[in-house]
Amino acid sequence: MTAVLPLPTPWNVDQAIVAGGDHHLVVIRFGRPSSTACAAQDRVLAAVAEQVASFADVYTVDITRVTEFNAEYQLVNDTSIMFFFAGRHIRCDCGTGEKRWISWVVESEEVLKEILETVWRGAGYGLEIVDGPEEY
């Protein structure tokens, strides 16, 4: 089973982003694990991690412990999923008006897999902003 790995330091976050290379999408959930929204999102991420392991690596960052990215990425939500490909931040437009991250709980495994695959394919074509599979 592929695990969702926690990134305990800023160095680990940077290394994960770089390690994805040109073929793997790096999915990082920044959030507060003590919140119910974050815990719910983590359950869905854990459920899909093995299914997307061929093209995505999934990580979590506790923004109450690793605070160095909070200002840079404006991390204020209980859960925010961000995407990186080839060391670049990839944005996803899911119709919510916010493209930098997904800040709501994606409750469906199928929907999350669809979003991850869409972002991965778009990033592979060199897109920095990917249109989500549908509006949410």
TrEMBL record:
PANTHER family tied to this protein: THIOREDOXIN-LIKE PROTEIN 4A (PTHR12052:SF5), THIOREDOXIN-LIKE PROTEN 4A, 4B (PTHR12052)
Protein name per Swiss-Prot or TrEMBL: Thioredoxin-like protein 4A-like protein
Keywords: mRNA processing, mRNA splicing, Nucleus
Localization per Swiss-Prot or TrEMBL: Nucleus
Gene3D superfamilies recorded: Glutaredoxin
Gene Ontology CC entries for this record: spliceosomal complex; U4/U6 x U5 tri-snRNP complex; U5 snRNP
Protein family (similarity comment): Belongs to the DIM1 family.
InterPro entries, per database record: Dim1, Thioredoxin-like_sf
Lineage of source species: Eukaryota, Fungi, Dikarya, Ascomycota, Pezizomycotina
SUPFAM superfamilies on file: Thioredoxin-like (SSF52833)
Organism this protein belongs to: Byssothecium circinans
Domain of life: Eukaryota
Biological process, per Gene Ontology: mRNA splicing, via spliceosome
